[in-house]
Amino acid sequence: MIFTPLEIEGMFEVTLEPHEDERGYFRRMYAEEEFQKAGITDFKIVQINQAYTKAAGVIRGLHWQTKPKEEAKFFQCLDGEIFDVIADVRKESKTFGKWVGVHLKGVEKKLLFIPKGAAHGYETLTKDCRVQYMVSEFYSPDYEVGFRWNDPFFKIDWPMPPSFISEKDSNLPDYKK
Fold this sequence. Notes:
The chain is built from 2 helices and 14 strands; from the N terminus they run E-E-E-E-H-E-E-E-E-E-E-E-E-E-E-H.
């Protein structure tokens, strides 16, 4: 596993190193010792989620969970292509107020590690997208918060106009600094 730090404090792009032969490949998807070597010492998987989206242009998010139920995520695209967005809403962070967008494709061997307290969302760029992510905390709706996809503080530059946003996500408020 190769951990490449990104512009958000505590965020990494993780490239898997497959072992390939005439049969196909073998990939190690998670290794606690590799995470610890990268300085990620408090990530324990408690839940694995998968989502499927039928159409291109669908935006999901941006959400995160607040204390005491903050969650880190280890996120991948299994099928299709997405534009994955992480926004730093941690006021104590050196990168507070920044956002990063990363293209993830099902055919690639890359995942994103999203630190606790960072907002997360994505837009599907193709139809039939499937994502999977491991989280460090159980889903706790009482601690889930979010902001709208077109929030004026973050000014996220989405690659395509949205084709669909859920009622829940459409009704999220602007981010309050």
